[in-house]
Amino acid sequence: MATFYKGVGPGTFLYAQDFRLTGLAPHAPGSLSRISSLMSHITHGTTMSGYISLTKSYGVARAYAFAGRIPPSATSPGFVYEIEINDPPPAGLTLVDPICEIGSANVNPGLRHTYHHDGDQSLLLGIADPIGMAHHLGQMTIDPPNSGRTPRHPTISIEMEAMVRALRDAEVLVAGNIPTICFVHRHDVY
Q1: Among 3.10.450.700, 2.60.120.380, 3.40.50.720, 3.90.210.10, what is the CATH number of 2-98+168-189?
Q2: What is the pTM for the complete model shown?
């Protein structure tokens, strides 16, 4: 059995539900699960997908519970759901490791679009925290002497962005419905 968490902030589209009573289904159940929709779900926060984002980290889920449209308060708290999923998971539910999925789709580093980048080592800080570390995203690439290449910002592929964010958020995706029995606790945060 594995424990996961789901943070829900006040004012978000999931806030009105109590998953302990309703369970949780993807916003677009039955939609085609492709690597491109997986990466879009992670990098763009696409809610119209066949995936549900969970995390292995209570701290990450708590941060998402604070990231609603309105600040959490005693009267409108954020929620962190504690979810236990057996191994094997319930019928119709699949756990997806986004790092493995993206990595296995990018086994040839010679291709143009991979999860690699051409920035310096601090570029990952900017991808992981695009607000607090945005200055790392604005740096120019460092080229060999006399390269003559036009100065430019580093190449950041959706593959790399999705992998960094999945690692940052200790993210696991669920395809299918999470039944009520898996929701073992709801923590109020404010």
Answers
A1: 3.90.210.10
A2: 0.89
